[in-house]
Amino acid sequence: MSDVELPTVITAITNAQIEGFVAGTLFAQGWSVIYRAIDIESLESYIKSSPESARGAILIFAPDLSGITRERLHSISATVKQLLGFSDDPTHDGVLGELHRVPTTATDLISLVRGFVRAPMLRQSTQLSRQGRRAHVLAVGSAGSSTGCTTLAINIAMELSLFEKATLLVDANFRAPSIAALLAVRNVHSEAGWRSIAPSLSIAEISQEQATTVDAFMEQATQSFDHIIIDLGSISGLSNRLTDRRWTSTMTTWSCDQGDELMVVARPDVLGQHRLEQVSSLIEKTSIRSALSFTLNMRSQGRKGSDEEARFLAITTPLRPLNVRVIARDARASTAAEAQKSTLIEVNERSSLRKSIATIASEIVR
């Protein structure tokens, strides 16, 4: 199986309601359910007759499967790609090994299975629980290129820090990390943790080395900061990336499953509109736990800007986003900040772009 293919699935669950929920949900997300076992004998028979298919599949089982034992399950584990067990009472059924409580929603199921494919040893509490953590997590992703999402991420983080909220800015744009360069900070990529660069503001960059420990890093970060802003860069091909086990997809998957808000940023020109339509179509077909918002950046003035905004709203409002935001074009402010390797408030705190971003920060601060 290639790294970008959706995994195949075998179900081995007697309870028809739970099995139907699992199989139906995964199938609706594009996963191939290649066999649905009704007892341990039929499962073993299928694996024996189709060893190649079984070898690439995730076996999702439950303790109610007739004839299942720890020994037989252990034997089967060598013939499939991975095992994932669900139970209404994981502690009581623990004789079969580590089990997860049956998810109650389709989004939680998809999130858990995606995370399990990415890192099989993760515990359920890491995968599903956002309760009790300190940080509010906003991930900023670009619908295409040159949308200004990195500028937004940097300056939202800066504005939040001005509220004296401990804020972490994470560069997870694996294709083109740029936050350190835009802020004239050196060697961030070589550090395992984060670095303080201003009062209440720290930055981190997720490199290939750090990608293997993203879950542990983010668990620590969400308990250490009030706000975390993640620059994802382009999120084109989102559905494939959410089941892609390559290191370049780790933060996108984490953000969609564990983030509080995914902000998709688009630009207003024809190509920007086309990219937004593509991303919106993918999101419509993909379950993510994070709340969704859209931002139209660099809106033109006058009638042209009104037309751009109308097209933007026509694409995004059917997805019922948490927020829809529009930011007017302010090339002078963004160019000055880039030239001086500074944030907008340091260059021109009265610029329209800075004021728009400050408004966004005031909406999400807590």
UniProtKB/TrEMBL annotation:
GO terms for molecular function: ATP binding; ATP hydrolysis activity. Keywords: ATP-binding, Nucleotide-binding. GO terms for biological process: negative regulation of cell division. InterPro entries: P-loop_NTPase, ParA/MinD_ATPase. Signal peptide: none annotated. One of its GO terms (cellular component) is cytosol. SUPFAM superfamilies: P-loop containing nucleoside triphosphate hydrolases. PANTHER family: SEPTUM SITE-DETERMINING PROTEIN MIND HOMOLOG, CHLOROPLASTIC, SEPTUM SITE-DETERMINING PROTEIN MIND HOMOLOG, CHLOROPLASTIC-RELATED. This is Unannotated protein.
